[in-house]
Structure formats: structure tokens, C-alpha cells
Amino acid sequence: MRVLLVVLTCVLISCSSSKNTTVTPEPLKLYEVIPDAKEKKTLRGLLTKEQITKDTAFGWYADNLKYFHPDSTVVRNIRSKTDQISIVLFCGTWCHDSQQLVPKYISTLEAANFPEQKLTIIGVDRAKTTIANLHKAFNLVSVPTIIVMKDGKEVDRVVEFGKTALVDKELGAIVESIK
What we know:
Glutaredoxin
């Protein structure tokens, strides 16, 4: 009986002490930070909106929103089709075109209450490559590129400054065309 009590006590002590040494695994990182001589850093891979909007290395985000107000018609179009579409946004945190346009895209989507889980942001390096060859799967040529998807298929895209340089209106027209 005494031996059983000693063994049971040892087991209880070892179990309770192991709880104190449990290591929480790091969250899965689907991106990498690439040191960049010209920019503070470059992000490559699957990104969150917060990584772009909140990182102090990307002060260009807030700077490029100072005089931008999302077009109400575009916001209405996106809001009316939110349940039908998803969006893939390729950008380069090093790219001046991305620095100008990505804040406008994200601001427009936020105004439309577009769900974050339906927005996939993919960062590319200066060679416009990304993890898992996503750049090839989407036939990426230039950044930024915003792709509107429906049922897993591309509807259309706006590349860099688009055809008219009114990228938010071009995005709205793509969304509006969806039946």
C-alpha cells in the first residue's frame, strides 16, 4: 500500500510539473521577411491586412490614404456582392505602385465591410516570386494585381494602375459585372 501511495504521488507530481513546462508552439508563418537594401523590409508570402497596415516599417500605408476617400458607388457594388466573391491581392511592400494603390484597395474593401477571410494578400519579392509558386498559379506579371474571384475562378483583374488609373472604379466595374 505504501509503495502504491509513493508511485501515485510521483505520478501526480510529474504530471503537475509537466503542465508548468508546456511550450506553446509558434503560430505557423506563411511568409518571410526579406532584408532589403532600398526598403526597411520586404514581406514575401501570405500576409494579413494588419502586417501591412500596422507595421511601422510601412509608413507609406497611412501616407497614401491622406487624400483618398473610397468611391461610394464602388463600395456599394462590392458590398452587394460580398457573398459571391473573394479577392486575391498581390503586392510588393518594396514596390512604389503597390505602396500607392494597396492602401486604396484595402480602404475601399474596409468601407464595403468586405470580410477579411475573403481577402488573400500575397507579398512578392523584387523578382515577383512568392512562396509555393503562387505567382505562377495566378500568372502574375506586375504588382499590384487585384483579382476578383467567383466560385474559385478568376472573373477579372486590375494590374498596376489598370486601364484608366482609376483602379477603385475599375475594381467596382468588375464586381458590378458579376451576375
